[in-house]
UniProtKB/TrEMBL annotation:
A matching Pfam family: AIG1
GO MF: GTP binding
Biased composition (Basic and acidic residues): 225-259, 318-328
Name of the protein in its database record: AIG1-type G domain-containing protein
InterPro entries with a match to the protein in the record: G_AIG1 (IPR006703), GIMA/IAN/Toc (IPR045058), P-loop_NTPase (IPR027417)
Species per Swiss-Prot/TrEMBL record: Oncorhynchus mykiss (Rainbow trout)
Keywords noted in UniProt: GTP-binding, Nucleotide-binding
Region spans: Disordered: 1-20, 220-328
Location of the AIG1-type G domain: 27-227
Family named by the database record: Belongs to the TRAFAC class TrmE-Era-EngA-EngB-Septin-like GTPase superfamily. AIG1/Toc34/Toc159-like paraseptin GTPase family. IAN subfamily.
């Protein structure tokens, strides 16, 4: 098997096969990493490739990258399963999944030959799903696209009235994703079709891709270094966003304090106006009291210096005012 020559005959959507295939000896050890959204069927795919139940698939969620190895078709095959990303990930959960995907590459030292992007065909593939898939492939660097195959997991009956090719061609998002992978795609069905070995065909396509890449693989060291730089840059960006939010909050609080002070000032001014009005009424009450005393024959201090008018308090004036209001 090691000396067997393979030809590049990978199927490409809307493209003809290379006119000059590149011969290359099939690698004795094939290293594969599986990525995809949560519940895409990655663990089941890993079991299908290795021909054994080596990954948990029933009711168990993959939370960290896991490596399994087994001899398949007389050669050693390594498969790394990784956690799937959520439909609506939070910042924390998304970061954890990204780190595990990158760590999965380190389990394939010196690096994986192939990335299988697992996509379930159990629902309509939207633009949002495509963007998420592209973002996670690019965690492994721009070169990862040259090592990636879209692997569709198909439940029984999903393609009853259409072929896989028709399904891809009818979806703009699926077609765009496949084109990013150089037109490479394959399907594994929930129920194996009689006389059809989908896993053998998949491994053949992977060998063809390795041949086309002239045996080059995704360097774990390069992927880890690039991921570290991206994570540091993202962390700096988040810190800057946090600082901007804190500054906006500080400004908002300052503006609120200024507004409160202005309202208090207006209230004080309003109370001052009331006090002035009250003082005016008190002065009027004092004048009325003096006039009344004059009308009743009580002499003022100017008429008789020895008999000064009695001392009036504010309470006295208020009582006089209230009394006059009652009698009017």
């Amino acid at each position: 098997m090691d000396s067997e020559e393979v030809m590049v005959e990978m199927k490409e959507t809307g493209k003809s096969p290379d006119s000059q295939p590149v011969p290359l000896s099939v690698v004795s050890g094939l290293r594969i990493i599986l990525i995809g959204e949560r519940e895409a069927g990655k663990s089941a795919v890993g079991n299908a490739i290795l021909g054994s139940e080596m990954f948990d698939t029933v009711g168990v969620r993959t939370r960290e990258a896991v490596k399994r190895q087994r001899e398949v078709a007389e050669r050693q095959v390594t498969v790394v399963d990784t956690p799937g990303w959520e439909w609506f990930p939070s910042r924390g959960s998304s970061l954890g999944v990204r780190r595990e995907i990158v760590r999965g590459v380190s389990l394939c030292q010196p690096g994986p030959h192939a990335v299988l992007l697992v996509v379930p065909l159990s629902f309509s593939f939207t633009k949002r799903e495509r963007q998420a898939a592209e973002e996670h492939v690019e965690l492994l660097g721009e070169r990862a696209w040259g090592h990636t195959v879209v692997l569709f997991t198909v439940k029984g009956g999903r393609l009853k009235d259409a072929t896989l090719e028709e399904e891809v061609e009818e979806s703009e998002e699926l077609q765009g994703l496949v084109e990013r992978c150089g037109g490479r795609y394959h399907a594994l069905y929930g129920r194996s079709r009689k006389g059809h070995d989908a896993v053998a065909e998949l491994l053949e396509k992977l060998d063809n891709m390795v041949a086309k890449n002239r045996g080059e693989l995704l360097s774990s060291e390069e992927v880890l270094e690039e991921a570290r730089e991206k994570e540091e840059e993202e962390e700096r960006r988040h810190q800057e966003e946090d600082r901007e939010r804190e500054e906006d909050l500080r400004r908002a609080k300052e503006a609120l304090r200024e507004l409160e002070m202005e309202e208090e000032k207006e209230e004080v001014q309003g109370e001052g106006g009331k006090a002035t009005e009250e003082s005016t009424r008190q002065q009027r009450g004092r004048r009325r009291y003096t006039d009344e005393k004059s009308d009743t024959g009580v002499e003022s201090s100017s008429a008789d210096p020895t008999s000064a008018p009695p001392h009036l308090t504010w309470s006295d004036l208020r009582a006089i005012r209230d009394q006059r209001c009652k009698t009017q």
